[in-house]
Amino acid sequence: MERGRTDLLQRSAGDIPAEYAEQAHTLLCEAFPDLETLYDYGPGATPQVILLLKDRTVIGHLAAYTRPVLVGRRQATIGLIGGVAVATRHRLRGHARGLVAKAHAYFRSRSIAFSVLFATDPTVYRSSGYRPMRNVTRFLDTDAAWKEYVYHGGMVAELDNHQWDDAFLDLMGPTV
After folding, report:
1. Of 116, 54, 56, 47, whose CA–CA distance to 80 is shortest?
2. Architecture field, domain 6-170
3. How far is CA 20 from the centre of its chain?
4. pLDDT tens digits for 26-70?
5. Strand 146-149, strand 137-140: pairing
6. Secondary structure of residue 90 in the 3-state scheme
7. What element of type H or E holds 157?
8. What is residue 36's DSSP assignment?
9. Which residues pair with 71 in a beta bridge?
10. Phi and psi dihedrals of 37, rounded to 5?
11. How far is the C-alpha of 34 from the C-alpha of 144, rounded, in Å?
12. Nearest alpha-carbon partner for 23 in 9, 5, 43, 42
């Protein structure tokens, strides 16, 4: 059992105290070894960043974005989750599920019906209500080229009584 106090800190990306921003970057580099520069929250993006703190040390990170998209021919605003990381020695204790639950509460407070994420390990998110997405997804890739394909780690959670449509999904920008 973990000892010590844990807290959640939720702020817009630009309002994270420098001490925690540095710790979050270190955590993200541990979780994503190919991350060479500061975690990029995206051009013009103002995600909510949710940090899990244990005794004033960042042990968890999640970025929650809201984004207008096209699903088929219908415009919708969805939640997108990115940058989910939990420090190695604190994994398998439900911390990622707690971060995702906080992001879902944020999305619901804005009447957003769906949360989408692109996972390297989809099994982690099933207990938070996610299921595989079958949508062909269009997005702006890191090489500035538009790409379209079915990402097999793409997942969706329905946050209210609306059902997700597996139609063509245009993110109208980068993934997260």
Report:
1. 116
2. 3-Layer(aba) Sandwich (3.40)
3. 18
4. 999 988 887 766 666 766 667 899 999 999 999 999 999 999 999
5. antiparallel
6. helix
7. strand 154-158
8. -
9. 74, 169
10. -125, -175
11. 19
12. 9
